Amino acid sequence: MSNPVVLNGHAKSNTLSLYGSFTEGDGDVESPNKLLEQRRGNESPSSFTGNSQFPETESELPNEISAPYEVPQFPIEQIEKKLQIQRQLNTKVLEDRRTHYEPSVGGVPEVEDLDEHDLYVPHFQRVSISGEDTSGVPLEDLERAAKLLIQALEIRKRYMKMSFQTFSSTAARFLDPDKEQQQHDDKQTIEDEEYVELLNRAARTSFDDVIFTSLARESMDNIKKMLESDMSFDPEHGIHHPPTTKPWEAPEIPDTEEVFVNNGGVYNVYPNEEALKNNAPCNYQYPNVIQFTSDFYVMCNMIADGPLKSFCYRRLSYLSSKFQLHVLLNELRELASQKAVPHRDFYNIRKVDTHIHAASCMNQKHLLRFIKKTLKNNADEVVTAAGANSMTLKEVFQSMNLTPFDLTVDMLDVHADRNTFHRFDKFNAKYNPIGESRLREVFLKTDNYIKGKYFASIIKEVCSDLEESKYQNAELRLSIYGKSKDEWDKLAAWAIDSNVYSDNVRWLIQTPRLFDIFKLNKVLTNFQQVIDNIFLPLFEVTAKPSSHPNLHKFLQYVIGFDSVDDESKPEKNPLFDKDTPKPEEWRDDENPNYAYYMYYMYANLAVLNHFRAEKGLPTFVLRPHCGEAGPVQHLVCGYMLSENISHGLLLRKVPVLQYLYYLAQIGIAMSPLSNNSLFLNYHRNPLPEYLARGLVVSLSTDDPLQFHFTKEPLMEEYSIAAQVWKLSSCDMCELARNSVLMSGFPHKTKQYWLGPNYTKEGVAGNDIARTNVPDIRVAFRYETLIDELSNIFKNFKLEMEYRDQQQK
């Protein structure tokens, strides 16, 4: 029988997903106090600098340091008193951890499994409110608000579950405290001790205060063999995932005979022809139009409810003030914690550009150099053909009376300026270099006469820059317009034939809302054709990978869908109901509204994800442009149907939705420089307000070609935000960590970047040695969220108990 695990003085079974140093013996356990004395500088429970070695060997693990880590000297500009305070904070961390492993603030809800966070939580100055009524609103309003907010959370949870998208695990536990929460995509914490030790060896990072007191000799030998044989890790910087050597090798999935039939705009899947004759489709859940419109109207009425608006506004104001107090009380502690972490700072933590379009992912100087280089080396290559007439690249420029010497950044005219503000049409025209759509066709399209050769080359140069930076990653958007069914095959052939792959890049598919233009040009006759062209090839390749072999390979790196266009376009009616024409009946020249597009994209995606999950294939998420401009009902669609959104500017005008986005921890990819040129001046951008309140926000570039000047547009975005809003190092690292959490990179990759147990809640899921986010900040965010949720659910529970008593 194995001995128990000792964790900070608490006995736990060794089946816990804890990673640490393994010691072998006959039951002698090193005291927790001795372990604590071995720690230096870092308050994170995951940092450990004591000797950790295998039995009968003197080799040291690579995360060991030769001498106790000392905090370096601080800048000489700081006053001596501040220096002394910071040194005292660093030296007292150890004593604080011995005596202050205190639980979270009072009022912890009656939800299981909060002890793990409490065991890890660091000591810091907390802001709490005592007394009976802490909400600041009348009891009747509080009860009504709690009921409505819980109803809204239930709606989102239901829609996320139907579509295999992620719902906040914290909110899910409050909604159903008796149910063990499952996460899609097998995003569980690590239970395999050998894999944990392998990751520790790779990461030269932290160990928990854990002693495995008894481990079989056979297991120890296996681990040693794994570590000795594994050469894919860089022992110096082990937070890097091993590189992919054969990216286009797809899993072999046997072909099956499913049949797909459109049912009111949503595809139903039948196992075979026999099932189709018997009208027995697969039981894949998705909301029908009546159910969706009913929930949609409930949410729309909710955001207009007066007492609820007042309640949410007060809570958001409280969250802002609470964060300001937290910063005043704990800023020095957070800074000291960051300085105590070796080899990790803002520059070498992972960042993901969560919103960037492939056609504009390069800066203007990069595009200019590429055009000049291509014109010099490929002048005689035929690049376009109009009927029987073909033109070489040289002839294209001659027709514009231009030579390479004439080209300048100013002549390219791709940068947004003051004339694009509230003029999305002028902004779209900036995608045409020198104002010529021909050059956009030649250089920035995947489907052209040269099969996207030049576009692939410049994308690979951008990918090379990302790989060189090592810590920057991007989620590039490629377009599928829904004009024809062969778009998917052409896009996949472009990616694979040109070998456009990078470990630093994943793809999203953006579908522009342009049905009215296609209808006007007689490309399409009804809206159902758009749905057919976008989704039917995906159902076919899922059932029969051999029917679209390139697409089957390409979809491994497609993480989701985006819906794009000018949100400020006027809509006759932003709502739609059961009387709205079905897609096959929509032959109007008017464009369907935003909610119409989103519902049919979501419903088909939900069915497709059920089908792909059954086949063991990766599923997709919905991450649309939402809330950049236009009606606030767009944000209701985003709340109900999307895992994350991009922009979210209009949340500043809708306190109910903003509070719900906070409670559900919905990711928001914000692009302040893009907004500054199009819809909202930089100093009015709500990003710092969202961040202070605890919304999950990240910084992204949107269109470096139009908005940025440097080779590293994402760092440019961070640097400007830090200067204008005076963001601290902790704020910047929190934004970067958020970007990784909300990104679509694989679960195992995120374990390298954020820590093996990043899916755990609170401090237990943070590894400061990888994220550089202090445990104090993570604990504050988690405890504040718990307080808000418990405040709502506690009052709802009391109201339900009171009603039960009245009925009796």
UniProtKB/TrEMBL annotation:
GO cellular component, one term: cytosol
Record carries keyword rRNA-binding: no
Keywords: Hydrolase, Metal-binding, Nucleotide metabolism, Zinc
Region: Disordered, residue numbers: 16-61, 565-587
CC cofactor: Zn(2+)
Pathway: Purine metabolism; IMP biosynthesis via salvage pathway; IMP from AMP: step 1/1
Molecular function, one GO term: AMP deaminase activity
Catalytic activity reported: AMP + H2O + H(+) = IMP + NH4(+)
BP-aspect Gene Ontology terms: AMP metabolic process; IMP salvage
Segments of skewed composition (Basic and acidic residues): 566-585
Composition bias, Polar residues: 43-56
Keyword Zinc: yes
Xref: CDD domains: AMPD
Homology family: Belongs to the metallo-dependent hydrolases superfamily. Adenosine and AMP deaminases family.
NCBIfam families xrefs: AMP_deaminase (TIGR01429)
Function: AMP deaminase plays a critical role in energy metabolism. Catalyzes the deamination of AMP to IMP and plays an important role in the purine nucleotide cycle.
Name by which UniProt lists this protein: AMP deaminase
Species in which this protein is naturally found: Rhynchophorus ferrugineus
